[in-house]
Amino acid sequence: MSQQIFPNDSRIKWLGAISLDSNDEYVMPWRIPHAEIDLYNIELMGRAAMPAGVRLTFQTDAENLVFRCDSLEERSLADLFVDGEYFRSEVTENVGKFRFSQLPPHNKEIELWLPQYGEFRLKGIEIPDGASLHTSEMPKLPKWVTYGSSITQCRDAASPSLTWPSIVSRNRGSDLTCLGYAGQCHLDPLIARVIRDIDADLVSLCLGINVYTNPSMNERTFGPNIVAFVKIIREKHPLTPIVIFSPIHSPGREDTANVVGFTLEGMRGEIRRSVDILISTGDKNLYYFDGLDILGVDNGHLLHDGLHPNTEGYGVMANNITKMLDSI
């Protein structure tokens, strides 16, 4: 026999979510405010429904855990960490539950990294009769919010704890909120408001590649939108460090103009100019790093489709970004 833990049990803590759609049947984490989803572009809404970087935590002495969820055809793995150490990954596609067995028998911190791709509704947790479950007592960590594209959502990483934001967050001891939205990093003002309105000790913005591939801005509008995005965040984070990354290497796009005349090379220059303008007008806690120093020409073989890194590539990005953030 087993104990049934409701998905909205107050002992379960959710990290990295902007909001929760919560009821007695399921809890679904969102990376935008669920109460305002109709205000958002429908494609952005679809990406924000995927729990990239979201974790659920609790303490238990259970030696077996079963997580019940909705069944979905396309979804990434889930990764379990026990007392801060990776334990195992489990498949979440086409299943209504997944299990972790042979856990250490002592009372331990559980952290489940949810799939970075595919929606996820938690329908409950099963623990053995006689086992206990308590609220996590993990220490509070500095809050880091990172915004970007599919290269920040990292669908192609082997599992959710192997995305570059998750690796960097563990390297630096940060509480991650990942706002990577595949195909949807277009400097939406509503996303700037989301970042403005949440706690953050550090903000990073990975800008440019979606604006190049799905040209939503041109040379006239791109720079001003960067400036406005940062200014909105600054309304409630006047002194928080903000780091801006330009696009990583992308073969065939570096010096090839898109339909509005932008090359990636030119886009990096425009991002750098926007940062320089903001700094020159008084923003003293803003930093720029060139994407070619994150993943450059020499690492082109790590782009499995010429655009998106593979798992090894995300590891390279994580190592370089860790050094960059440590330097500020």
From TrEMBL:
| Domain SsfX3-like N-terminal stretches | 14-122
In what residue span(s) does the SGNH hydrolase-type esterase domain sit?
Answer: 145-325
The record ties this protein, via Gene3D superfamilies, to: Galactose-binding domain-like, SGNH hydrolase
According to UniProt, the name of this protein is: Uncharacterized protein
